[in-house]
Amino acid sequence: MTLAAWTHCRLATMQADAATPYGLVDDGVLVVDGQQIAWVGPLSELPGALQARITVRHDAQGALITPGLIDCHTHLVYGGDRAHEFEQRLHGASYEDIARAGGGIASTVRATRAADAASLTAQSLPRLKALCAEGVTTVEIKSGYGLALEHERKILKVARALAHSTPVDVVTTFLGAHAVPPEFAGRPDDYLQEVLRMLPLLHAEGLVDAVDVFCERIAFSTAQTRKVFEAAQALGLAVKLHAEQLSDSGGSQLAAEFGALSCDHLEWLSPEGSAAMAAHGTVAVLLPGAFYFLRETRHPPVALLRGHKIPIAVSTDCNPGSSPCTSLLLMLSMACTLLQLTTEEALAGVTRNAALALGLRDRGVLAAGLRADFVLWDVAHPAQLSYAFGANPRLRTVVKGQSV
Ligand code: NIG
Ligand code: FE
Q1: pLDDT at position 342, please?
Q2: Is 159 in the pocket of ligand 1 (CB under 6 A)?
Q3: Where in 218-326 does DSSP place strands (E)?
Q4: pLDDT of residue 45
Q5: Closest ligand 1 atom, CA of 317?
Q6: Residues of the chain with pLDDT under 50
Q7: Does any ligand 1 atom lie closer than 6 A to the CB of residue 317?
Q8: Whose CA is nearest to atom 12 of ligand 1?
């Protein structure tokens, strides 16, 4: 058995109950046993018996080591782009105006349906590689630009296959209830029946890890969302929700009632929604890229989330309409500057709390028994990861104990 030790490093363990901010350990040691972390702590406390069994030594040369980053909310498998809508918005059109006029999600649906699996893979892989280049080791990818069985299947299969082209772990989410496709125009409830038909079929093919809905006045109501959640629950699938992004629809209460892993966006979250999320352990996923790109002025109620001790995650929301962004490090900066998170909250948002938002208990912090997914950075202090925007100080990524 090979025990490998990483030494000469500072560790940001991000353990929730750590005595120091970020769970910082100076002059730390990370011992890896195969695919798992075997021991984490200061060199001075490394047990002699363990030290004697170490066979491989890696000198981190003063690097900071954090858990592998987790991007817990993306729509990165899509065709085409929406730069022309960006231009329209700069000339005064709103995101909702464009969606109501048949653009928005519908225009990406056209481009995604037109692309075959090979083309969709070719268009999406660079986005996933860009995330990897910044130390991302786990990515959630949603469907939702197919909106018909064959196309939703194609997106989810491409998402699964992308995991084999890169070292990252991919988690898939079925977002059939993202928009009403053109062939169901004016018949949203008929389309909802189609969503309820697709879900068990795609689940039976092993393509679905969780279920999401876009609950919003331009998308699906809470009553419609409830039907999708009931279907997910019947299959034993976890749910999450695009909630209170453009208005307060009350989706967060509904999602919490279903034990949702997360509610995402949340600019319009009410005190009642926040209380419901707290009561059911639902994570708040903040998406500063969408806030920035749609030039929102309404801030997600961070003080309310803190008051309720709701875990806060941060993600790119990588998608062509509201956040064409492939930099999770930039989201750290924006989470601090635009949404007023602390640098420690921001880093917890892309590690520990992002893992919670995906229901993954085996990663997100550096602790014995968890997956050996971690990143070496050329910075002295973890605040620098949020501070220097546009920089990428990643030195090396380790996934399941292997340098990648
Ligand atoms: O997370 N809010 C819904 N879905 C995406 C945007 C979809 C699009 O505009 O293509 C989001 O912001
Ligand atoms: Fe989204």
Answers
A1: 98
A2: no
A3: 238-243, 262-265, 283-286, 312-314
A4: 97
A5: 1
A6: none
A7: yes
A8: 322
